[in-house]
Structures are given as structure tokens and as C-alpha cells.
Amino acid sequence: MIRVLYLHREVEGSTKRLSDFIKSLNMQILKDPLNFFLCVIVKGPSGLNINEITTKLKQSKIKIESITEMPDDGFDLGAYYRASKIITPEPTLFLNSYSRFRNKNALQMLSDAWNNIPDDSILGTSGSFHCHLSKRPLFLNFRSLLFLPFSIYWNKSYSFEEDFPSLPNPHIRTTGFICNSSKLNQYFNKAGLPRTKRDCYGIELGKDNLTNFFNNKYILSSRNIHTVDKVVEGGFRNQYQQNLLISDNNSDYYDNASIIHKKILSYKSYF
Fold first, then answer.
1. CA separation (Å) from 217 to 4, 30, 43, 100, 120?
2. 18-47: average pLDDT
3. Which residue, 187, 182, 231, is CA-closest to 211?
4. The listed CATH number (3.20.20, 3.40.50, 3.30.450, 3.90.550) that belongs to domain 2-265
5. Checking CA distances to 262, which of 16, 53, 66, 82 falls within 20 to 30 Å?
6. What is the mean pLDDT of the chain?
7. Rounded to whole angstroms, what are the CA distances from 142 to 111, 147, 169, 256, 269?
8. Sequence ranges of the domains in the chain
9. Dist CA 160 CA 166 (whole Å)
10. Is the pLDDT of residue 147 over 50?
């Protein structure tokens, strides 16, 4: 059984994002839909319309386990933190408000891959080499390292923070990943509830990040599955991102960029 946990944050534009997610879910080709169930976390600054949200979710082709309202704090990871405390221990796919299945076989591929790796694993659909600087995150890839000495010379803010690894820093991005919810709860018992964006950066790409908490860490694309320490750049940063199984706000940003901007973005450190 695979739980699909979807975070719906009620803000401007979120109704369309929810509809797009349900549409992508209903297009999934599944061997047995009964092997999947949907858990929805609802949060937002104000004015949550639970009845409208529930009506839309009833269109889902897989069974709805629960719809739970949570405080609007801690960003996406705050919702995952709270959810890990209350959901039953199951392999869980964590998705944020921007997530959509990009491939009609994505959910089944994730399930099949999960069933062929150790239970003590984390399985992501995208990753990054990002590190963190004293003032802002650094989004580079190995080719861009050639320019780093000049950046340090001209901008003294380019210094790596003590709690963050330097480049390269391969890790799984904290949306579109599967792990056992009980294992995630164990991690959050150590990391605590994230309250700031910096806390979230620490969970995703810090020295004590979520990826490194697991002994077995994998990335799945439409082509293959591989361990995080053997990744290749450009896994989905190509013209059509055809290797990507799940879209989110980062991939949307790339899709909507101009041709010139896409060339620049292709040097970013995603895989």
C-alpha cells in the first residue's frame, strides 16, 4: 500500500492547482487502484472552504483516507512534520500544493520501485547539489564552480555556513519523495518543527538533512533508478523535462521560461 499525501494550501490560484493535481492523479495507469490511498492536508492564511475542497477531492480515482486541517506555519515541511505525528506507518509519497504527476505511469513506477528497495529507504523524484551561503542559497552545478573563486573575490557574502555542506551536496528535494512515515517521524523528532525558511533549507540541504538520515537513498526518473551518490546532472533540466515524473513549482518555472532563460536554468544544479 502507498499513501499519497497531498498538501493543499488555500491561497490565490490554489483551486486550479488542486484541480490539476486531481486530473493528473486520475490519469494514472494503476495495476490495482486499491493499493493506493489519498491523504490531504489543508492549510492556509484564512478562509478555508473545506466543503469545496472535499467536493473536488471526491473526483479522485483512489480512496480518500482523510482530509485534515492544520495550522499555516512551517511551510511545506511544517505540514509534513505534523502529518508524520498522526498518520499510520505506511510508505508515503509527500507532495506539495504545486505537485502534479507528469507521466501517466508515474505512481505505478514509484510503487514498483519502492517494492524493490529496502524498507529503510527514501526514494525521490528529483534532487539537487545545492549548498547554502551566509546570505542566500547557492544554485550551481559543477561547471559553474569555475566561476566560484571570482564570486568569492568580488562578493564576500559567498561563504559557506557552518551547518551546511559545501559543493557538491547531493540530496533529494523535499517534495515528490517516498519514505515510511514512521521513519520521517523519527527524523522530525530530532530536527523539530521548522519555523523559518532557513530551518527548511537545513532539512533539505543542511549537514543533518533528511536524505542523510536514511541509509538507502534513491532517485527515480522515467528512465531508471539510481542511488543519490551516483547521480548525473541534467536528469530533467532538458528542453521538455521528459524524464521527470512529478512536476512542482521549480519545474513549472523552467517550463514557462524563455528559450534564453532555459539555457541559463540548465546550468542549475538539479538532477
1. 19, 25, 29, 22, 9
2. 92
3. 187
4. 3.90.550
5. 16
6. 83
7. 32, 10, 11, 25, 8
8. 2-265
9. 6
10. no
